[in-house]
Amino acid sequence: MPRILLLLLALLLPAPLAAQPFTPDQRAEILSILRDALRTDPSILRDALAGLDAADRRDREQARTAAIERLGDALFRDAADPIKGNPRGDVTIVEFFDAQCGFCKQLHPAMEALIRRDPGVRVVLKDLPVLGPNSQLAARALVAAQRQGRYVPLYDALLEMRTPLTEPALRQAAERVGLDWARLRREMDEPAVQRRIEANLRLAAELGVEGTPALVIGRTLVPGAVDLPTLQRLVAEARAGRG
Fold this sequence. Notes:
- By secondary structure, the protein is an alpha+beta fold.
- The protein folds into two domains: about 1-70, no CATH class; about 70-240, Glutaredoxin (3-Layer(aba) Sandwich), CATH 3.40.30.10.
- The chain has eleven helices and five strands, in the order H-H-H-H-E-E-H-E-H-H-H-H-H-E-E-H.
- The protein has helices spanning about 1-10, 25-40, 45-70, 70-75, 100-115, 135-145, 150-160, 165-175, 180-190, 190-205, 230-240, and strands at about 85, 90-95, 120-125, 215, 220-225.
- Helix 1 (about 1-10) packs across helix 2 (about 25-40), helix 6 (about 135-145) packs antiparallel against helix 7 and helix 6 (about 135-145) packs across helix 10.
- The longest helix has 28 residues, at about 45-70.
């Protein structure tokens, strides 16, 4: 199989990259060998494609790891970001979320349980409104709520809601957690609030985040909702320097 794959790769290489271009007769002979091999053992093609897919995944993971290291300050150490858990924790989780996202709501109880059980966890919250106008509205409300010191209570309230995050629903949730709605509504429309959200969107794009929720734990990007045991394992790996 290695010989067949090498010949296949050689055929695919542009002529300037090959040590010596194949002649038409040589190409025909190689194609004949490939056809015979695939006819005799079709698993060769399956194994070759699986190997290419694995190599592609490794390349993507390496690129994401490099991006996490390069963007470390913006991810982990932005003083403007709201924090849950222990502000001085030894393991930081960055959570990209959309307050309307059903999978974010599914993740929320597991994250809460992790924070309760592990006093060394620090969670950085990054609004990533990708699900339309109501998501944008909720993100602006959250960023503005930070000015009144009530970001985390509003975050918890919105992640626990199972109804659309319309403006009346946002007002009800905001007032329930002690926010001044008139001030909040006014500050939601300030350009600085929108700039914060746009910075999160750019950061997520640079990391290759494709949806919400997305977690960065150590040097690992975790797409989608995961359960508490998975979170605990990833935190332990990050704590040990393996994640």
